Amino acid sequence: QLQLVESGGGLVQPGGSLRLSCAASGFTLDRYYIGWFRQAPGKEREGISCINVISGSSVYTDSVKGRFTISRDNAKNTVYLQMNSLKPEDTAVYFCALGADSRCLLRNNMNYWGKGTLVTVSS
């Protein structure tokens, strides 16, 4: 059974760091794109970063560029999101999702979703 499971969320102070993980089971990631999305209370789900798991090429939205880094470990079938210099506005539920092409920041283009992990940035 194909499954994506996010972990690593929690409460962190502004300026702090967290690393999120997206572990895949039931399939191997290396044929796909994995996107990280987030949804803040009262807002739409937005794509913030994605990676071509084969090549490692990645993209970021402007709001996280320079602070977040996406990476993958093909041996562990896992994609990571390293989040540094966190701000209160980064507070959201973070989801990973699987897509088949480079339009991996577009919510409607993603085929499978994890259930999300909550990140709260607050002092």
How would you describe this structure in keywords?
4-stranded antiparallel beta sheet; globular; 7-stranded mixed beta sheet; single chain; mainly beta; 11 strands; 50% strand; 123 residues
Structural commentary:
The chain has 123 residues and is mainly beta. The protein is built from no helices and eleven strands. The strands form two sheets. Strands 2, 4, 5, 6, 9, 10 and 11 form a seven-stranded mixed β-sheet that branches. Strand 7 and strand 8 form a beta hairpin.
- Which stretches are low in confidence, meaning pLDDT under 50 for 5 or more residues running? none
Q: Distance N terminus to C terminus?
A: 40 Å
Rg over alpha carbons: 13 Å
Instruction: Count the beta strands.
Output: 11
Oligomer, anyone? single chain
Kindly summarize this structure in a few lines.
By secondary structure, the chain is mainly beta.
